[in-house]
């Protein structure tokens, strides 16, 4: 099994055998008083190419789940394996390197740099993910074409509609070729029509083999996924 921390050039192109994501009895506790268990004994397996939603109300543990899956936080108890490798012993720098190579993020609030062009925003993650310099601009251009914004490369984010800004965020998330895309309330700031367009874009990416996890409070968005996990009071149940 190739280590998560090996250079990208060392990773084989072979199809992943076994789960891409595996949580085993993961609990995340926060000290009190009283102590709060945001996740309670969570066990979850996600295969390469899967399309999964995690749905629940505010305070149910969705954000904690996102932070664990995205290597932004660590379980208090239990194991998290990514691509078959344990993540618990990785240093903070190693976790950052794995995030840059393996995981793409899309957030409700876009998190685009307002004074940088659309193209510059999409170029940014490749500074940290090991993409060779000579490939970066062409990959960014291709990603923007893929999301239908090839004609907006020189625009600033604030001149775009909400749907266009979210498409830029999607292009930025996938430009480095991640294996896992985590979308956190990706339609929360969009109207119904634009939400449908953004979800269709995610589903096209999933059809091409990208593993997709959508974290949402919206049952309509959640039902679009092939698998739906409900989270309530920190516990997971598959619907």
Features:
239 residues, alpha/beta, six-stranded mixed β-sheet
**Form type:** globular
Supply the helix-strand structural class. Answer: alpha/beta
Strand content: 25-35%
Beta strand count: 10
Distance N terminus to C terminus? Answer: 32 Å
Q: Strand order, main sheet: write it out.
A: 6-7-8-3-9-10
Map the helices and strands.
Layout: E1 21-30, E2 36-46, E3 51-55, H1 62-69, E4 77-82, E5 85-86, H2 92-102, E6 103-107, H3 118-123, H4 133-146, H5 162-174, E7 180-184, H6 192-207, E8 211-216, H7 219-222, E9 227-232, E10 235-238
Parallel strand pairs: 3-8, 3-9, 6-7, 7-8
Antiparallel strand pairs: 1-2, 1-4, 4-5, 9-10
Helix pairs in contact: 4-5, 5-6
Give a summary of the structure in a few sentences:
With 239 residues, this protein is α/β, with parallel strands linked by helices. Helix content is 30%, strand content 25%.
General description of the model:
With 239 residues, this protein is of the alpha/beta class. The protein has a domain at 49-72 and 95-228: P-loop containing nucleotide triphosphate hydrolases (Rossmann fold), CATH 3.40.50.300. Helices cover 30% and strands 25% of the residues. It has a six-stranded mixed β-sheet, sandwiched between helices. Strands 2-1-4-5 form a four-stranded antiparallel β-sheet, with helices on one face. Helix 4 (133-146) crosses helix 5 and helix 5 runs parallel beside helix 6 (192-207). The longest helix has 16 residues, at 192-207. The model is unreliable at 7-15 (pLDDT under 50).
């Amino acid at each position: 099994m190739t280590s998560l921390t090996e250079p990208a050039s060392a990773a084989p192109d072979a199809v992943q055998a076994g789960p891409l994501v595996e949580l085993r009895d993961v609990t995340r506790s926060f000290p009190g008083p009283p102590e709060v268990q945001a996740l309670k004994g969570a066990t979850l397996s996600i295969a390469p190419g899967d399309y999964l939603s995690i749905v629940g109300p505010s305070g149910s543990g969705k954000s904690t789940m996102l932070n664990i899956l995205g290597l932004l936080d660590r379980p208090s108890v239990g194991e998290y394996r990514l691509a078959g490798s344990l993540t618990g012993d990785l240093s903070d720098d190693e976790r950052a390197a794995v995030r840059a190579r393996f995981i793409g993020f899309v957030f409700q609030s876009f998190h685009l740099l307002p004074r940088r062009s659309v193209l510059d925003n999409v170029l940014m993650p490749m500074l940290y993910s090991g993409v060779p310099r000579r490939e970066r601009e062409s990959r960014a251009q291709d990603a923007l074409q893929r999301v239908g914004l090839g004609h907006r490369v020189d625009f600033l984010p604030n001149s775009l509609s909400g749907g266009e800004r979210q498409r830029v965020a999607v292009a930025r998330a996938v430009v480095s070729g991640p294996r896992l895309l985590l979308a956190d309330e990706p339609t929360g700031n969009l109207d119904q029509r634009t939400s449908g367009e953004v979800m269709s874009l995610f589903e096209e990416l999933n059809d091409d083999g990208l593993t997709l996890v959508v974290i949402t409070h919206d049952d309509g968005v959640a039902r679009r996924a092939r698998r739906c996990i409900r989270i309530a009071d920190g516990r997971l149940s598959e619907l």
